[in-house]
Amino acid sequence: MTHATQPQGKIKVAVITGSHPFDVPNFHALFRAIPDIDAYPQDLENFAADWGEIRNGYDALVFFNMHGELPAEGPIATAIAELGETSQGIVVLHHAILAFPKSPQWSELVGLNDRSFEYFIGESVHIEVANPDHAITQGMTDWDLLDETYTMADPGADSQILLTTHHPRSMHAIAWTRKYRSARVFCYQSGHDKLAWLHPQFREVLARGIRWSARRI
Questions:
Q1: Looking at residue 188, what DSSP letter applies?
Q2: CB 76 within 8 A of CB 105
Q3: Whole-angstrom distance between the N-terminal and C-terminal Cα of the chain?
C-alpha cells in the first residue's frame, strides 16, 4: 500500500504501547483532546500482527512502548525493520526513547548512540525553546513542567534540537527532530504521566510533532 504524502481529513495515528505501565484513561484523553488526530492506541504485538492489514495506512506512528529485547525474527522484528521505508511519520515519546536498548536500529532511529540512562520522577523542569523557527516550536515561549527526566547523552549533529533544559537531573535535549530513511522523526523526552499530559504547552508540542512527522505542517 502506498502511503500518501499529503492525506486529507484527520491524521490517522497508531499509538503503540507495551512493556511499561501507564494511566490508561488520561493517556487516551490526551489524544482525544487533539481534534485533527484520529488515534488508535494498541500494543506493539497487535501493531506488528497487523490483523487488519492497515499498518502502512497510518499517517504517523507514536511509540510509547519500552520493550527490552527486539526479536531477531517474527512480526515485531519485521514491523520495526520496515520503519522509515515510507514517508509515514514517527514520534518517539518519553520512555520509548529507551526501548530496545541493544538495537542499533532503534538507536539510529532516535539519534542516540549511547542510551544508558538514569531516571528521576517528579522533577520540576524549566523547558527552553532552542529553535523558535521550527514548525513544532514556532511562536512558543519557555515553560515549567513537572515530569520524569532522564540523564543520558544528547543526540548528535544529525538531529535538530528544538527544546532544551539546564536541569541537573536531565539530558540537555528535551525534543528533537531527525530523518530516518524516508521518514520524519520527532523525539520528545517529556510525557511520563498526566502531570505532563495535562500541561497545555506539552500538548501543543506533541500535537505539532505528530502533524510535522505526518507532513501536515
A1: E
A2: no
A3: 23
